[in-house]
Specification:
Length: 277
């Protein structure tokens, strides 16, 4: 090769890998293969809680070192540490659940592509499809999802508005419950329902009534998930155990198979049959 031969530009790669819902065993075989062929491995755990995930166990499984990134690394610093390594090497970025459910990760992928960094996505189980499936409700009958935030700066009206809009179209609502990872603070189904009842007191539109149906789902993906459907007034004090929790507010009307599934799979009371229509 001559002295003045053209330089070879090495293009890096950023691979978004879903970890699944609960522990180290939830990652796919394809995800493991991608990690083992990566030069650097990073992970974040602030967008969702994986109760059974043990970092040291995972390091032994993959035979690689693992660097955990904070919200500041990803959001405030816009993922700079990922891009610095991915410019010329292969970076695996591990994310709870399915990688692109969080809009933050979509922004990272867009930025990487604009920088000329090749991206790839290895999907994992998503809390949305898993929790909906466990509830027995039909996924095509869900409208816009919403996050119920902690009321630190006042109670947000957004959850109430979204639920109201979905119910007007005879659609169910999936509610993400707020997380403060740095404080190890995870909203419970009970807290979320109390916030919604407070919003009903403020708005008085009869959307979140005490006798209205709700479905709480806890620890999806674990060996002991809890799925419970009942009137909101009963679920407020129901013990769902440890986090993570999710909440579903069904439409006012149910398909007959949804009612049967809620009774059989979520311990719903017989009166839900009156919602069939």
């Amino acid at each position: 090769m001559g002295l003045f031969s053209a330089a070879v530009v090495v293009v890096g790669e950023l691979v978004f890998i879903g970890l699944g819902l609960f522990d180290c065993r939830d990652i796919s075989l394809r995800g493991l293969e991608e990690i083992k062929s990566s030069d650097y491995v990073f992970a974040e755990f602030y967008t969702s809680l994986m109760p059974g995930f043990k970092i040291e166990d995972f390091r032994r499984i993959v035979g690689k070192d693992l660097t955990v990134l904070s919200r500041k690394d990803i959001e405030d610093e816009e993922g700079r540490v990922l891009f610095e390594k991915a410019k010329y090497g292969k970076v695996a970025f591990l994310v709870p659940g399915d990688p692109l459910i969080a809009t933050t990760h979509i922004a990272l992928r867009v930025k990487a592509e604009k920088m000329g960094i090749k991206t790839k996505v290895i999907h994992g189980a998503s809390i949305i499809s898993a929790a909906i499936g466990l509830s027995g409700l039909q996924n095509y009958r869900f409208g816009k999802s919403v996050t119920i935030p902690f009321p630190d700066n006042g109670v947000s009206q957004t959850p109430y508005i979204v639920i109201c809009e979905n119910k007007a179209m005879n659609l169910h609502t999936f509610c993400f419950l707020d997380i403060k990872f740095e404080e190890a603070k995870y909203m419970s189904i009970n807290e979320a329902l109390k916030i919604l009842l407070k919003l009903e007191e403020i708005n008085r539109r009869g959307i979140i009534r005490g006798d209205a149906l709700a479905v709480g789902v806890a620890r999806v993906g674990s060996d002991d998930p809890i799925v419970k459907a009942d009137a909101i007034k009963n679920l407020v004090d129901f013990d769902f155990g440890s986090p993570p929790h999710s909440l579903i507010i069904p439409s006012e009307r149910l398909h007959f198979m949804e009612a049967e599934a809620l009774i059989s799979l979520a311990g719903a009371p017989e009166w839900v049959r009156r919602m069939i229509g």
